[in-house]
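Budget justification aside, the reviewers requested a transparent look at the raw inputs and outputs of the sequence design task funded under Objective 1. We therefore reproduce one unedited record. The lines immediately below are the structure tokens for a 222-residue chain.
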């Protein structure tokens, strides 16, 4: 994922989507402004990933939309599917394959992200084992999944001063509350519900997040 500005938007799909309708929703989201990446994260329930066939169909429908808008396409928890489909990257959590094993499976060029929740040790180990970025959160209450950590924004500041790898902030982030995370040094703001459930649609949501990010960056530069 390129870094055209100090902080960019990182979208994550809802756990369940309808195709081809969601491809149209995704196009609308990208019309709202800058988006760095889309992570395909499909779940039957909180602890069970969708079947491979469903993920493959979603890759076929959504990856071309992402690439047409210069947005990186990241597959959650399925390195073999990421390799098979030519995705731009893979994201793994604590219950998935270890970062070192995933890096060996996908090779040196594909982007690899790791969820680190509120653990500084896990973040440092992920970087040493081959991750290209680390994700911290949940920073705020969220209904998307049960949080494994509730870090304070200071962890982002610590990471930006300690490591060269980018950080992703996730968990209940809205345009109104993203400011402290941006100012603390988050390179990417990850969003699920705040975009797809926005009352004015995904395009308006992406526009609102980008505006909030710009304002927070401007405050940091004063």
């Amino acid at each position: 994922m390129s870094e055209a500005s100090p902080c960019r938007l990182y979208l994550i799909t809802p756990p369940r989507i309808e195709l081809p309708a969601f491809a149209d929703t995704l196009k609308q989201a990208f019309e709202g402004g800058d988006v760095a990446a889309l992570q395909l994260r499909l779940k039957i329930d909180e602890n069970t990933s969708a079947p491979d066939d469903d993920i493959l169909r979603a890759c076929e429908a959504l990856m071309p939309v992402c690439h047409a808008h210069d947005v990186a396409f990241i597959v959650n928890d399925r390195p073999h599917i990421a390799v098979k489909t030519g995705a731009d990257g893979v994201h793994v959590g604590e219950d998935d394959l270890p970062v070192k094993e995933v890096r060996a499976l996908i090779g040196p060029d594909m982007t690899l992200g790791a969820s680190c929740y509120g653990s500084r040790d896990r973040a440092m180990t992920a970087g040493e084992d081959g991750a290209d970025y680390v994700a911290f959160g949940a920073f705020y209450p969220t209904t998307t999944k049960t949080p494994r950590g509730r870090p304070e924004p200071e962890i982002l500041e610590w990471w930006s001063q300690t490591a060269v790898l980018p950080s992703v902030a996730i968990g209940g982030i809205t345009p109104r509350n993203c400011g402290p995370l941006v100012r603390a040094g988050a390179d990417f703001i990850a969003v699920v519900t705040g975009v797809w459930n926005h009352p004015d649609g995904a395009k308006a949501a992406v526009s609102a997040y980008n505006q909030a990010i710009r304002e927070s960056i401007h405050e940091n530069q004063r």
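The chain has one domain: 8-221. The mean pLDDT is 94. Computational costs for records of this kind are itemized in the attached budget.
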